Amino acid sequence: MDSDTEFWEYAGRPYRLERSNHPDAVRERVGFFVDRRTGEFIEDNSPISDIIWPDPSTDGFWREHDSFRRDKHWYVDAVEHERMEYLRGDGAVFALYEVIEATRDQARTRGRMTPEERALVLSTTSRTFQLWEEEIARRTAGEAPTFEVTSTVGYP
């Protein structure tokens, strides 16, 4: 992800826009959602028009599919939240998800998260995102997966 990457929340889900010269690109952009079945990213350009050209009759906000510009930190956390919510498996990523969930459970019990817990969750979430990026790069290069994933849903 580089400086030409934009991060959005679209219909309550993390969505990434990247610049592209691809012939199917919409206004020189392609977009991606995280696939809730695999943890990888799937191209879906259908939201781009809603994001770029919001309906003017709604004062610039597309009410049907609320979209909001977000920063990379929000995006990473939201992607990892979807992966934790919908994917199951073994390996380092899933062990780290257990650490994140246990930390959040403790904070919920107390009614607040300490600065140390917040820092732990942020750093662990960044690490799991990086582990997924490395795994996706390996799989794209034709290497065998280092961990298997199952999903709790049947749709992306």
Short note summarizing the structure:
By secondary structure, this protein is α+β, with helices and mostly antiparallel strands. It has helices at 48-52, 72-86, 92-110, 115-140; strands at 5-10, 13-19, 29-34, 41-43, 67-70, 87-89, 149-151.
How does this structure look, described?
The protein has 156 residues and is of the alpha+beta class. Helices cover 42% and strands 21% of the residues. The chain contains 4 helices and 7 strands, in the order ββββαβαβααβ. The chain has a 5-stranded antiparallel sheet. Helix 2 (72-86) packs across helix 4 (115-140) and helix 3 (92-110) runs antiparallel to helix 4 (115-140). The longest helix has 26 residues, at 115-140. The chain is globular, with a radius of gyration of 17 Å. The model has no long low-confidence stretch (mean pLDDT 88).
In terms of DSSP E residues, the strand content is 15-25%
Number of helices: 4
Distance between the termini: 21 Å
The amount of helix comes to 40-55%
Largest beta-sheet characterization: 5 strands, antiparallel
Number of strands: 7
Instruction: Name the average pLDDT.
Output: 88
Strand order of the largest sheet: 4-3-2-1-5
Quick one: overall form? Answer: globular
SSE sequence, one letter per element: EEEEHEHEHHE
Indicate the radius of gyration in whole angstroms. 17 Å
Q: Specify the structural class.
A: alpha+beta
Query: Which stretches are low in confidence, meaning pLDDT under 50 for 5 or more residues running?
Result: none
